[in-house]
Amino acid sequence: MKALCWTGVNELTVEDVPEPHLLNRQDALVKVTASSVCGSDLHLLDGYVPAMLAGDVLGHEFVGEVVEVGPDVKERRVGERVAVCSILGCGRCRYCREGLWSLCDNTNPNPGVQEKLNGHSSAGIFGYSHAMGGFAGSHAEYVRVPYADVNAFPVPENVPDSNAVFASDAVPTGWMGADLGQVGPGDVVAVWGCGGVGQMAALASLRMGAERVIAIDRFPERLGMAAAIGAEPLDYERADVLDALKEMTGGRGPDVCIEAVGMESHGTGPQYVYDRAKQAVRLQSDRGLALRQAVQACRKGGTVSVLGVYVGMVDKFPMGALMNKGLTMRGAQQHGHRYIPMILDRMSRGEIDASHLLTHPMRLDDGPEGYELFKRKLDGCVRAVFRP
Ligand SMILES: NC(=O)c1ccc[n+]([C@@H]2O[C@H](COP(=O)([O-])OP(=O)(O)OC[C@H]3O[C@@H](n4cnc5c(N)ncnc54)[C@H](O)[C@@H]3O)[C@@H](O)[C@H]2O)c1
Ligand SMILES: [Zn+2]
Ligand SMILES: [Zn+2]
To answer: What is the pLDDT of residue 201?
Structure first.
């Protein structure tokens, strides 16, 4: 079958790879009908996530049709259309039972890399390096879904693939960002990054009753989309973010700061030059510009919710601000299983529509070009979605 493979840093090719088959009694085989790019893939493409091997199939945000199930799959049926969570849970370990799905103890068969780096390993993730289990991703005609009853969610008939595909990753991640920040009525929320994840965090914050959401980025089309959702756009190339946020909140600072940028933060000024140089020579693994701003902007006693992916060490972290202002800081790979059924239900009722994120519907054959547009944010690309 055809699949989009990582073949080296900044190198992608569409290759012929063997079709997957069931390995475990709880597996299902899914025929992919739509598979999206995600900001997390850029960290792999750019070579910042360890343990990628040439030939690894990318992709983790997808929908498709179940074509085969193992004998112990009880809930999913052949023929069902499903959105599959990008993160794999087992449904039985302590973490899954507590709803901390991305901390699952059983779905990463290769925990050693993360154990060395972080002390413990998180869950397996589709198409996300051998540090996250080495699972083949969804930019392919077929994908094997482990623990299918737990990780695949039936899509209501009236929700098209163009909306449902984002129930797999971008929407639940955004939802989790607002949830970890415990956003509630009256809150002022600031969101760094207006990609799919940041926009969905803005949307979720508003749905949870936030009085104001300020959305920060530099691309006009992305700021425009955030504004259409109901957020107030803030262009970090035209204003000093910390000054502007103080000004907009009467000196207090946002109650909740959601970071949806991650380890490849862009920026202006000397801090950006410093971050790039240190990352280039591997003196830090992650660029923390947006993260530092979020900590510094947050009001006293507020919460910083980190959705952007970090893999290791951030230099010049403002620990003094975190400690002295009494901040709470939370983050995780998405605990999607908590939110996906609710999200699909709301999509079905017309209450959530994320389909505007799909700016570039493409064929799988055009995968390398799709990633080029997405990575460089060309042609207004927010998400390219491939149809095998
Ligand atoms: N926690 C999770 O489970 C999870 C899931 C999906 C994605 N992610 C991560 O979330 C992040 C965003 O993903 P995405 O798909 O929206 O990516 P994206 O590349 O589409 O969007 C990132 C946005 O951040 C903006 N940005 C860069 N530097 C900034 C700065 N200093 N201030 C404000 N904005 C800045 C960029 O202009 C861009 O619009 C990535 O790090 C991705 O890895 C995490
Ligand atoms: Zn993702
Ligand atoms: Zn588990």
So the answer is: 98
Alpha helices, DSSP H, located in 32-72: 39-45
Residues 234-275: tens digit of each pLDDT: 999 999 999 999 999 999 999 999 999 999 999 998 999 999
With residues binned 3-state (H G I as helix, E B as strand, rest as coil), the percentages for the chain, rounded to 5, are: 35, 25, 40
Output the ligand 1 site: residues, CB below 6 A.
38-40, 42-43, 169, 173, 192-198, 216-219, 222, 236, 260-262, 265-267, 289-290, 307-309, 333-334
- Ion ligand 3 residues within 5 Å by Cβ: 89-90, 93, 96, 104, 106
Closest atom of ligand 1 to 263 CA is: 41
The rounded distance, in Å, linking the Cα atoms of 252 and 245 is 9
Q: Which CATH code for domain 2-169+334-387?
A: 3.90.180.10
Fold of 173-331: Rossmann fold (3.40.50)
Q: Are 59 and 45 in contact (CB under 8 A)?
A: no
**How do the domains of the chain map onto residue ranges?**
2-169+334-387, 173-331
- Quickly list H helices, the chain: 39-45, 94-97, 112-118, 148-151, 161-164, 170-180, 196-207, 220-229, 241-248, 270-280, 289-297, 319-324, 340-348, 367-376
Angle of helix 340-348 relative to helix 170-180, nearest 10 degrees? Answer: 120
Question: Which residue among 43, 87, 197, 241 has the greatest number of ligand 1 atoms within 8 angstroms of its CB, and so is best to mutate?
Answer: 197
Q: Mind listing the pLDDT tens digit for each residue in 84-133?
A: 999 999 999 999 999 999 999 999 999 999 999 999 999 999 999 999 99
Report the separation in Å between the CA atom of 77 and the middle of ligand 1, taken as the mean of its atom positions: 35
C-alpha distance across the termini of the chain, in Å: 10
Q: Same fold for the domain at 2-169+334-387 and the one at 173-331?
A: no
Between the CA of 236 and the centroid of ligand 1 the distance, in Å, is: 14
